[in-house]
Amino acid sequence: MPVPAAALKPKPARKPTRTQSTAQHAVLLDLPYEPVRKRALPPGRPREWYITHNRRLKAMRLAIALLDSGVYLPDQARNERIRSAAETIGVHPPSETTCHMVRALMRYAR
């Protein structure tokens, strides 16, 4: 029985969708990568701006570390757990305000 010519042509490879992983195997992440090289902040801003900016950066790093460790809900992220994550990634223990900011980031990222 003859085979149609279209059946002999190799099918083109499908492009992965935006959310589909292109990795050949799973990548295990046990600790965060090396931190990004720090750049100088712009001069001339009020001191409070720098404090808030650094607090936001620290809160984002901590929120990412918590998500990587399996803490997905803000209710699971008590101050003790956030501080232990800070110790794990090598940053100074966060203040109450920073812990509150970490929970806020986890809440509004959903």
Show the helix and strand layout.
Blueprint lengths: L4 H4 L38 H22 L10 H11 L6 H13 L2
Helix pairs in contact: 2-3, 2-4
Provide keyphrases for this structure:
elongated; 110 residues; mainly alpha
Structural write-up:
The chain is an all-alpha fold and 110 residues long. Helix content is 45%, strand content 0%. Helix 2 packs across helix 3 (79-89) and helix 2 (47-68) packs across helix 4 (96-108). The model has no long low-confidence stretch (mean pLDDT 81).
Strand content: under 5%
Count helical runs: 4
Largest sheet: none
Task: Calculate the terminal CA-CA distance, rounded to whole Å.
Answer: 57 Å
Structural class: mainly alpha
Quote the average pLDDT: 81
Helicity level:
40-55%
> Using only CA atoms, what is the Rg?
23 Å
What's the quick description here?
The protein is an all-alpha fold. Helix content is 45%, strand content 0%.
